[in-house]
Amino acid sequence: MSPPRNVVKIAVQMRDAIPQLIQLDQAKPLAAVLKEVCDAWSLTHSERYALQFADGHKRYITENNRAEIKNGSILCLSTAPDLEAERLLGGLQSGSREERREALRRFVLLASDMTFAREVISRDGLQRLGTIIEDGDNLGEVLALGLRAFMELMEHGVVSWETLSIPFVKKVVSYVNMNLMDASVQPLALGLLESVTLSSPALGQLVKSEVPLDRLLVHLQVMNQQLQTKAMALLTALLQGAIPEERKHMLDYLWQRNLRQFIYKNIIHSVAPLGDEMAHHLYVLQALTLGLLEQRMQTPLDPYSQEQREQLQALRQAAFEPEGESLGTGLSADRRRSLCAREFRKLGFSNSNPAQDLERVPPGLLALDNMVYFSRHAPSAYSRFVLENSSREDKHECPFARSSVQLTVLLCELLHVGEPCSETAQDFSPMFFSQDHSFHELFCVGIQLLNKTWKEMRATQEDFDKVLQVVREQLARTLALKPTSLELFRTKVNALTYGEVLRLRQTERLHQEGTLAPPILELREKLKPELMGLIRQQRLLRLSEGTLFRKISSRRRQDKLWFCCLSPNHKVLQYGDVEEGTDPPTPESLPEQLPVADIRALLTGKDCPHVREKGSGKQNKDLCELAFSVSYDRGEEEAHLNFIAPSKQEFHLWTDGLSALLGSPMGSEQTRQDLEQLLTMETKLRLLELENVPIPERPPPIPPPPTNFNFCYDCSITEP
């Protein structure tokens, strides 16, 4: 007879004692269970003890998390969290440096447990750790352990970062600003200051005033990847906390100090692979830099601005007036105005007054900036563009000004100018760090590409929107390749001609549609079950290999990773925390387990509890697209295991695999694409012998029956 549902068979171990194999009744109070365990080992005062998970982070068992105990779990009997906190806090006050070091090591091991953290915080443990950090008697391992333990306790959110004192923050700043410092201390100090900057505007201003940008540049130039990453994290946090004017001043200073060149040569093209954290911070730096263009993008042209009128006149003069000559020599004012209006129309402005074309926002003044930049930095290409189109028939000319306005809008959309930074994205462009004025340089390439595509399409004014769609596709496809330099981008995008775009569209359409002949459709339907089984097998194998997931909090992007995989027998999900930079753990070493049989449902997107907690802001849109959860039974309550997939592909693989485990259809876009690809390949293999043989839309008709069946053998006649 099987035990009741709320009874689990577990092992409890204690140092220097024979382990106990017990049946734990989840309905029995935890204090009663502890007393029975202690009585079996003849231990008195059971209130002085507590149960912990034996593996992983050795979390304490409480009434809130006891439902996580499953059949086969191994627990250990240890000192109660309140007594352990008291003991370790006493060790921090010991006169022996070795005792303080051991206490701090134990602190770091237990600080991630919420139960232990609450006990420490309630006994002023943060203040005692803060004293160790502020005193700074030992700048080596003791200080590093103190900083790590302090950050682990603060991460629980029990105490706000805003409660930190100014002297404490200044002391941590001093560790960042020191020249000779233990290599393990400065990354932790930088990480702590990043948390302070992101969580407290007031203390963030203090950090900004106390940590010189030059100091962060020094840390970035140290060939220590962890230190570089933390320095970049603090730098992007300071930039995010600054107002637009301060941010522009800071970025201008960083660019003057050759930060862009250093990032491009020594970080992007470093021998060591680029970590996920650094990729995210480079994305944020790129987004913040491009975000400086938003003000110009949202500002319409002012017809009364002398500077802007002069820029428009400079555009006209650069195209139509030879150097040293001036329009209006010997002409009346009316004649001069008439000629100017005509030349502005030749430039591609829709109105004789060009200011009216630039009143639209976006792109506002950003379009004018791009046109002026192109005329000054590529004068020959600018003149050739304008004069070449001026000599064409009216209906075939490519309007420079209109094209510039629309291309600027297009580039802002492709590069997400003005959009808030994502918390998880890593999609930065190496080309951005290879070139000063990258946006304007990209415009110069794009406007020449537009003129080239216009000629290839033999377009007229009515085809303007079609040309723009092709140019969008050319730019988007080339940007997706992540070229490492502007020259490489120019080469690739110019190789993507209009004919090549049509070929790619046709190829993709054939891959998507396949043939629609009824016999082929019937064959595809017969092949689908077998191929869906193959896809299901691949998804489960991928889950068995496991994936590293990143923990995301409502406050900021986290450094912590956790690993999850499916057991080889496909019956248990195994997971646990891991350190960044280490090899993926083996399934046997993972501390947590979730039986597949206990899973109720798979949730995705906005239905996930960790997405609902974060709200619905624009910055959470990408988070919502990568989020999924599994709900499972934990005692009588419903619990959730929450995931944030590292990429859209991983999201599809995991949701498909979990759906397959639950017996639900695999309905992701990736499954549809994989099935289509496999069906196309299998169909072509089956039809190899019918190559160049037309397949009719309908099967040939069945001929009518013969007039008689005399040719048939009559089986009823017996032979003699």
Automatic annotation (TrEMBL):
It comes from the Eukaryota. PROSITE patterns: ELMO, PH_DOMAIN. It comes from Otolemur garnettii (Small-eared galago). This is Engulfment and cell motility 3. Pfam families: ELMO_ARM (PF11841), ELMO_CED12 (PF04727), PH_12 (PF16457). Keywords: Apoptosis, Phagocytosis, SH3-binding. InterPro entries: ARM-like, ARM-type_fold, ELMO_ARM, ELMO_dom, ELMO_domain-containing, PH-like_dom_sf, PH_domain. CDD domains: PH_ELMO1_CED-12. The gene is ELMO3. GO terms for biological process: actin filament organization; apoptotic process; cell motility; phagocytosis. GO terms for molecular function: SH3 domain binding. Involved in cytoskeletal rearrangements required for phagocytosis of apoptotic cells and cell motility. Acts in association with DOCK1 and CRK. Was initially proposed to be required in complex with DOCK1 to activate Rac Rho small GTPases. May enhance the guanine nucleotide exchange factor (GEF) activity of DOCK1. Residues 541-663 form the PH domain. Residues 307-479 form the ELMO domain.
